[in-house]
Amino acid sequence: MKKVSLGDYLLYYLAKGLGFIFRLMPVGMALFIGRRLGLLSMSLNSKRRRIAYANLKAAFRDTHSLKELKAILKKTYANIGQGIIEILILPKLDKRHITRCIKFEDFHHAEEALKKGKGFIFLTGHFGTWEMSHIALPFKGFPYTGIAREQKPYLLNELLDKHRESGGCRIISKGPAVKEAFRALKSNRIVGMLVDQDAGKNGVLVDLFGRKASWNPGVMDMALKTGAVILPGFAAREKGPYIRFKVFDPIKLPESGDREEIIKEGFRQYISCLEEMIKAYPDQWLWQHRRWKSTPSREVLILNDTRTGHLRQSEAVAYKLRDIWHKKGNGLDDLKIRILDVRFRRKFYKGLLRFSLEPESYRELMKTYADIVISCGSSTAGVNLLVSRENNAKSVVIMKPSLINIKRFDLAIVPRHDNPVKLKNVVVTDGALNLINHESLQGNSQELNKITGTLKKRVIGVLIGGPAKDFKMDKDLVGTLLDELIKAASEYDADILLTTSRRTPGDVEELLRMRLGRNPDCKLLIIANEDNIEGAVEGIIGLSDIVLVSQESISMISEAASSDAYTIVFRQRALQDKRHEAFLKNMAEGDYVKVVNTGETCSAISDVFKNSPKQNILDDSGRIEDALAGLF
After folding, report:
1. pLDDT tens-digit map of 256-300
2. Structure letter (DSSP) for residue 129
3. Torsion of CA 326, 327, 330, 333, to 10 degrees
4. Class assignment of domain 438-611?
5. Please, which residues bridge with residue 146 across strands?
6. What are the respective helix, strand and coil percentages of the chain, to the nearest 5?
7. Where in 16-139 does DSSP place strands (E)?
8. CATH 3.40.50.2000 domain residues, the chain
9. Residues 22 and 333: beta-carbon distance below 8 Å
10. Got the DSSP string for 532-563?
11. Euclidean distance between CA atoms 509 and 520, whole angstroms
């Protein structure tokens, strides 16, 4: 005999006492109380509420408004409350109640299936008032055996099974007792199964609401082995005790072919029926279950604050997630990446989140479904938490958020110069995350080479940024840089490849045109505000032996340092931003870059070409890979 705890006894007598009380009431009144109890449970279990709402969004985001989804969510809890009361009062629901309250549709399919002498499998789900199957089918004269998952409280499980069997059905538990299901079919009985929950890694994958879901193949195997007909059927609650009990056409399994494909086809037919009922009664499915827990389909949302450097860091994390997901045996297309611009009304409102966003931007963000939300920078950190909570999603923030406790995020990727705290959810990087890798450098270099033509043996790349916080680009010092650059290119017979950024001031752009536009050593001059070339930065880095980068751009410095090219950061003046200065210091001490004054650029280039000094390659990917893998 199983060991029974004090808690089990308490639950047993509580359920027994409540059942006695509710059976004294009119059914309508008992269900009314059930609805209220269901709504109360909605406020008590926030975890399940978030799961349910996220599932609703995943299924209905394109067909229902947010207001409608929240109304459906509320009704699902009311329906669950009624279902719990119903199982407590099952012994009271006699033939008079069933005749008055249940409308049977298309039950001729059941009669025809039993005539074949092999019983049939009644395939239903956690939909509507599924417990009513246990009394409704025997009432129609069908010999019915239901398979139910055994609940952990032993005494409570026995009580519930006793109630289920009060109408004449027989209940068997999942597991070894399933053998009894084969015997039941052989005896021309109906075997009822609920098969709509996640089946784990060993299930077969078939789409549910356009997203791959895992299904237990056991039911289809049973049909193949016994030759039993499979009939989908669902009991939908119309209102209160009034139920519409519908049986669909038999599932037609292919007579030949690959076993897995035969099983998948059977589930496609079942899912078609299930989706039809859910669409008609969206509040009656058990959305609180993590139905897509085992799906290979994942959706990643990047919140873009429209700063290119921040976006590239977020994309680097998203693509790393895709690589990790692919290594787990999933397809590259199984992880979808979407980028949404976050548009604020005014900076003053940024702390107020919803009211800080432009109305259309807020609506678009709330409507979007995601499993993982990524943002970079302080301005979007609060929006990240808002959207991830809305979708019950994982949150990844890059850079240290200024006003929000970093513990609130599932993962924080913080550069060393931000002085990160030591926490389990914090990963520290040396530089800014970026998209630089062998494939991106090679591909973009080949494309850029089509424009530059044949290059000399030595190539100097130049990445020019622009004004930033506490930094103003000095035209005269850029002129000094060009003097040094032109001198070095002439001395060492090197080609120059240069690109500006969208932040580069107009007077600096004009100076670059004047000094390099007709210089024979300059094989490429890109003014980003006029003719930006996709992948230009990666292409220049990939083609260059040395890359010169202006001091204010953490992202461009990190990109150059992540390659084989020797990286030289040219300074115009000391920066007031202490964190930026700490970044340059850390990068220099880590031997990822060499930092020089603008007037020393030619000398630094000369040293590289003469002495071939070695630099370390910046690679933070190993630090974040394990942390990102933990998000799945």
Report:
1. 889 999 999 999 999 999 999 999 999 999 999 999 999 999 999
2. S
3. 10
4. alpha beta
5. 171, 192
6. 50, 20, 30
7. 102-105, 120-124
8. 438-611
9. no
10. --TTHHHHHHHH-SEEEEETT-HHHHHHHHTS
11. 18
What's phi and psi for 519, nearest 5 deg?
-75, 125
Residue 14 CA, chain-centre distance (Å), reads 40
The residue behind tokens 């990286």 is 567
Strands (E), 13-61: none
Structure-token pair, residue 19: 């059942």
Are 63 and 277 within 8 A, CB to CB? Answer: no
CATH of 298-429, one of 2.60.40, 3.40.1000, 2.30.29, 3.40.50: 3.40.50
Phi-psi region of 424 (alpha: psi -120 to 50; beta: other; left: phi over 0): alpha
Angstrom distance (rounded) from CA 374 to CA 411: 10
Exposure pattern of 118-155 as b/e (b: 16+ CB <10 Å)?
bbbbbbbbbbbbbbbbbbbbbbeebbbbbbbeeeebbb
Q: Among all chains, which residue has been given the structure tokens 């300059």?
A: 522
Angstrom distance (rounded) from CA 18 to CA 470: 69
Largest CA-CA distance found in the chain, in angstroms, rounded? 103
Per DSSP, the residues of 583-610 read HHHHHHHTTS-EEEEGGGHHHHHHHHHH
Question: What string of H, E and C letters represents the secondary structure of 406-450?
Answer: HHHCCEEEEEHHHCCCCCCCEEEECCCCCCCCHHHHHHHHHHHHH
Does the pLDDT at position 316 exceed 70? yes
Residue 277: burial class (beta carbons within 10 Å; 0-12, 13-18, 19+): buried
The model's pLDDT over 108-149, given as tens digits with 9 standing for 90+, comes to: 999 999 999 999 999 999 999 999 999 999 998 999 999 888
The separation between CA 628 and the C-alpha centre of its own chain, rounded to angstroms, equals 12
Q: In the prediction, which pLDDT does 576 show?
A: 67
Q: Which pTM was predicted?
A: 0.87
- Pick from 52, 630, 18: which is nearest to 328 by CA? 630
- Beta bridge partners of residue 597, listed in sequence order: 571
- Residue pair 123/232 in contact (Cβ under 8 Å)? The answer is yes
Spell out a b/e string for 164-197, using b for 16 or more CB atoms within 10 Å of the CB, else e.
bbbbebbbbeeeeeeeebeebbeebbbbbbbbbb
Ramachandran region of residue 218, left (φ > 0), alpha (ψ -120 to 50) or beta? alpha
